[in-house]
């Protein structure tokens, strides 16, 4: 791997306080500061909710910013942080050497992880590395391969991810020649042009929406489109998402779209209030007789009790892992959201901390429970059976816990099915109203998709043998 030092990794607290002059918006005054010895041109200062690059340091208590900060700086003295300018020449040299050796280099040009509904502005490092390498090795067959990463409930264990690999992007020879001149303005123009090509390639592979509400509208619309007479695979779902994200801006203010958004919002709120999911309304409530629903309700309730009784000891032993992973990841996500301007729910932080906690806690629990078993075994079994019990627990407990995890998945599916079964069996009139509402919404959404050309494959509008969703998809989806 090639290490990359980031400015935020070397950030430090600045001395004193700063205040932005309201007259020109670029003169930053200091109070108790030592700008001459602690700040250099090219460094970035962060205060309040704004940041800006330093153009020149004029004294210990005065400096000039390169441009007026975006947003609305607070008109008061505030503490600040200094993000020093990092020299990446050594890193680029390693990238050039790796590419010259015929290796592939993976780059995430979007920067920090986030859960925004659209892509963040891309960093220019990928363009600088590519153009710099081709300037040194003009005959190298260098290609940039765009990759879209689509998460389905990525903050949950055993969730799914879809990789959409696009067409390799060739770098125009004119841009390489322009960059090779060495002139600063020429380099910036060539870099900007290549970044535009890269952004276009990535935009064709990712799901983008102007806000979270629009993204939630798309998720529900995708669920409704999936449940036609033909199943929609993951690749078709991604194609549909791409068509939606590129075409939505053109029709977002039309009456059909606003009407569909209003109905989807009402339908989603109804489902949340009842603890139901869309696929349950489609697969269970729409196709099940009342008598059969009552029988399934009793049978699955019994199955749930039996499974819970069989695996309850394993769940009790695994409770520390569950509590610790959820609690720590929750607070870490909340902390990350509070300290970030690009995170909404911090689902990427949740996933990371769940894995980190599990890697630490699982071996500790395994060894700890084995030690407890070895300590108790002599009191319940005579030698040499106490040693046998200890060894059996040590070697078999991982398989037992894994079986409990699989059984837990099954129990979760059974528990989720009880609500729609109870609605069908006990409230037939309400069930008919909800199914009718979904059917109206189904036909409206399919008409909207057809009219705007968002459909990836020619699916029928009939709600026959559609593929329901067995899990909540989309809430953890990222770009």
Can you walk through the features of this model?
With 479 residues, the protein is of the alpha+beta class. It has 3 domains: 7-83, Thrombin, subunit H; 89-203, no CATH class; 209-479, no CATH class. It is 56% helix and 10% strand. It has 14 helices and 11 strands. It has helices at residues 35-38, 89-100, 125-136, 173-180, 184-203, 212-226, 234-251, 255-274, 278-285, 290-317, 319-338, 347-380, 385-426, 428-452, and strands spanning 12-13, 17-20, 27-31, 44-47, 50-59, 62-65, 80-83, 143-144, 147-152, 160-165, 169-170. The strands form 3 sheets. Strands 1-7-4-5-6-3-2 form a 7-stranded antiparallel beta sheet, with no helix packed on it. Strands 8-11 form a two-stranded antiparallel ribbon. The model is unreliable at 459-479 (pLDDT under 50). The chain crosses the membrane at residues 293-316, 355-377, 389-407. Residues 456-479 are annotated as: Disordered. GO terms for molecular function: glycerol-3-phosphate O-acyltransferase activity; glycerone-phosphate O-acyltransferase activity. Keywords: Membrane, Transmembrane, Transmembrane helix. Residues 465-479 have a biased composition (Acidic residues).
What general outline do the C-alpha atoms trace?
A: globular
Order of helices and strands: EEEHEEEEHHEEEEHHHHHHHHHHH
DSSP helix fraction: 55-70%
Oligomer: single chain
**Biggest β-sheet strands, sense, barrel:** 7 strands, antiparallel
Query: Distance N terminus to C terminus?
Result: 23 Å
Q: How many strand segments?
A: 11
Q: What is the domain total for the residues?
A: 3
Proportion in β-strands: 5-15%
What structural class is derived from the secondary structure elements? alpha+beta
Organism: Coccolithus braarudii
Biased composition (Acidic residues): 465-479
Protein name: Phospholipid/glycerol acyltransferase domain-containing protein
Keywords: Membrane, Transmembrane, Transmembrane helix
């Amino acid at each position: 791997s090639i290490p990359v030092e980031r400015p935020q990794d070397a950030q430090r607290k600045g001395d004193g306080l700063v205040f932005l002059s309201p007259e020109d918006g670029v003169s930053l005054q200091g109070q108790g500061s030592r700008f001459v010895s602690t700040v250099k041109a090219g460094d970035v200062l962060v205060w309040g909710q704004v940041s800006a690059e330093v153009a020149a340091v004029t004294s210990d208590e005065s400096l000039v910013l390169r441009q007026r900060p975006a947003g609305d700086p607070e008109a008061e003295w505030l503490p600040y942080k200094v993000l020093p300018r990092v020299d990446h020449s050594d890193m680029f040299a390693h990238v050039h050497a790796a590419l010259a050796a015929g290796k592939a280099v993976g780059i995430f040009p979007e920067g920090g992880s986030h859960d925004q509904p659209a892509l963040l502005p891309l960093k220019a490092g990928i363009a600088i590395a590519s153009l710099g390498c081709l300037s040194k090795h003009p005959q190298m067959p260098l290609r940039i391969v765009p990759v879209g990463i689509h998460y389905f409930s990525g903050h949950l264990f055993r969730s799914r991810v879809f990789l959409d690999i696009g067409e390799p992007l060739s770098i125009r020879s004119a841009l390489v020649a322009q960059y090779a001149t060495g002139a600063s303005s020429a380099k910036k123009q060539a870099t900007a042009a290549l970044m535009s090509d890269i952004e276009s390639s990535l935009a064709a592979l990712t799901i983008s929406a102007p806000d979270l509400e629009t993204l939630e509208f798309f998720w529900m619309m995708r669920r409704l489109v999936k449940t036609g007479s033909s199943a929609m695979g993951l690749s078709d779902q991604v194609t549909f998402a791409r068509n939606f994200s590129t075409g939505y801006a053109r029709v977002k203010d039309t009456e059909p779209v606003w009407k569909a958004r209003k109905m989807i919002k009402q339908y989603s709120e109804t489902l949340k209030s009842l603890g139901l999911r869309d696929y349950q309304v489609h697969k269970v409530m729409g196709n099940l007789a009342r008598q059969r629903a009552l029988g399934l309700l009793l049978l699955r309730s019994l199955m749930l009790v039996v499974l819970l009784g069989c695996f309850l000891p394993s769940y009790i032993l695994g409770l520390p892992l569950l509590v610790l992973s959820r609690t720590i990841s929750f607070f870490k996500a909340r902390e990350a959201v509070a300290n970030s301007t690009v995170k909404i729910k911090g689902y990427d932080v949740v996933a990371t901390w769940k894995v980190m906690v599990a890697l630490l806690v699982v071996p500790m629990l395994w060894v700890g429970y084995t030690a407890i078993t070895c300590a108790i075994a002599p009191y319940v079994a005579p030698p040499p059976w106490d040693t046998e019990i200890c060894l059996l627990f040590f070697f078999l407990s991982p398989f037992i816990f894994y079986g409990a995890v699989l059984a837990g998945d099954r129990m979760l599916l059974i528990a989720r099915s009880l609500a729609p079964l109870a609605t069908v069996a006990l409230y037939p009139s309400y069930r008919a109203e909800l199914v009718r509402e979904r059917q109206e919404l189904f036909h409206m959404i399919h008409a909207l998709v057809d009219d705007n050309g968002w459909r990836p494959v020619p699916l029928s509008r009939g709600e026959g043998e559609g593929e329901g969703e067995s899990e909540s998809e989309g809430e953890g989806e990222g770009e």
